[in-house]
Design a protein that fits this description.
322 residues, alpha/beta, Rossmann fold, 2 domains, 7-stranded parallel beta sheet, 5-stranded parallel beta sheet, 11 helices, 34% helix, 16% strand, globular, binds 1,4-dihydronicotinamide adenine dinucleotide, binds 2-oxo-3-(phosphonooxy)propanoic acid
Length: 322
């Protein structure tokens, strides 16, 4: 009998799907509040594992003797030890294009909040002594400004369409997107990150997390003064310390961050004191609509790998299937 282990909270529609699977004879273990040790016991007998963004280490994978598929509730998989899965020939599935609209909307909100100084404006009403800030907020229009999208995949392309609608000038930096797959439309590529940073008034990050920050102290020094930054990608994509310094010296006018180097961020988070930064707890992809789609998709993908009907484009490590 198939054992499906779901490690992390799902939308109620996904939970209902799990109940239906149980009725069909699938053994389902659903662990809502997850930390790695608590599910490690169940993983020993699991055939399929659904994970949120918690780490999935080589040590845990080694205990999963029967594991035939890992299915991500989401698209980023930096927390999964893919090399350990590859060594065992275990496919890793992602949900594909089901949360990118939500992410792009969150990025658009961050850019607008930065331009309009939303947090300071909010403070200026909640604290009556600050009402006079209304004449000093340095808020701006985004219309006509240059928006650089770093990473022109699902979310980056959705944001581009929204930003064009706001009359922004949009260009994208994505050296890994083949020119034959570059989408038709007004958004042209910028070949180097140096040129891109010198051109942009605003930027939004939509890349996977790499080994080191793409936006480090050098990158911040290449930006025009007054930059607005949106990050819904992953915390490690930008250096938080360098961002804090750039906010203090005015090179960066405002920022929006949904993701952090360490999650949850520690009490001493360097950005906590900046009221020109809008923060959210890694929720860009967690709207009601996207949560429902992700819950169904990650369950479907796990089962589709087991019965051999998975769309190969949803596999991070296609070779694992062969
Ligand atoms: N905050 C949240 O709730 C969510 C965060 N994410 C994050 O956003 C990232 C992007 O998501 P999608 O657009 O769906 O992924 P995607 O895979 O469709 O697009 C990523 C793009 O980044 C490009 N890229 C990779 N490395 C790059 C680099 N060093 N410089 C420039 N471009 C680079 C790739 O060629 C690709 O076109 C995910 O990897 C994930 O980490 C995704 C969904 C929800
Ligand atoms: O899609 C992603 O990469 C996300 O960050 C969302 O993942 P989660 O819903 O937390 O498993």
């Amino acid at each position: 009998m198939t054992h499906l282990l779901v490690a992390g909270k799902l939308h109620p529609t996904g939970v209902a799907r799990l109940e239906a699977l149980k009725a069909e004879g699938v053994t389902v273990t659903y662990i809502e509040e997850i930390n790695e040790p608590s599910y490690a016991d169940h993983i020993v007998t699991a055939d399929a594992l659904v994970v949120r963004t918690q780490p999935l280490s080589a040590a845990t994978i080694a205990r999963a003797e029967h594991l035939k598929v890992v299915s991500r509730h989401g698209v980023g998989y930096d927390a999964v030890d893919v090399a350990a899965l590859n060594a065992r020939g275990i496919p890793l599935a992602i949900v594909g294009d089901v949360n990118s609209v939500s992410v792009a909307e969150q990025a658009m909100m961050q850019l607008l909040a930065g331009a309009k100084q939303a947090i300071r404006a909010d403070h200026a009403v909640r604290d009556p002594t600050k009402w006079g800030w209304r004449n000093r907020l340095e808020q701006r229009e985004i219309s006509g400004r240059n928006l650089l999208i770093i990473g022109f995949g699902r979310a980056g392309q959705k944001l581009a369409r929204m930003a064009v609608g706001f009359d922004m000038e949009v260009r994208a930096y994505d050296p890994y997107l083949q020119s034959t797959r570059w989408p038709e439309g007004p958004v042209k590529p910028i070949e180097t990150l140096d040129d891109a940073l010198a051109w942009a008034d605003c930027l939004s990050l939509h890349v996977p997390r790499g080994d080191k920050p793409l936006l480090d102290a050098v990158a911040f020094s290449q930006m025009k003064p007054g930059m607005i930054i949106a990050n819904t990608a992953r915390g490690g994509v930008l250096c938080e310390t360098a961002l804090a310094a750039a906010l203090s010296d005015g090179r960066v006018h405002a920022a929006g961050l949904d993701v952090f180097d360490v999650e949850p961020p520690t009490g001493g988070m360097v950005l906590a004191d900046h009221d020109n930064v809008i923060l959210s707890p890694h929720i860009a992809g967690l709207t009601e609509e996207a949560s429902e789609r992700m819950a169904l998709s990650c369950i479907d993908n796990a089962l589709a790998v087991l019965d051999g009907t998975i769309d190969p484009d949803l596999l991070v490590n296609k070779d694992a299937l062969t």
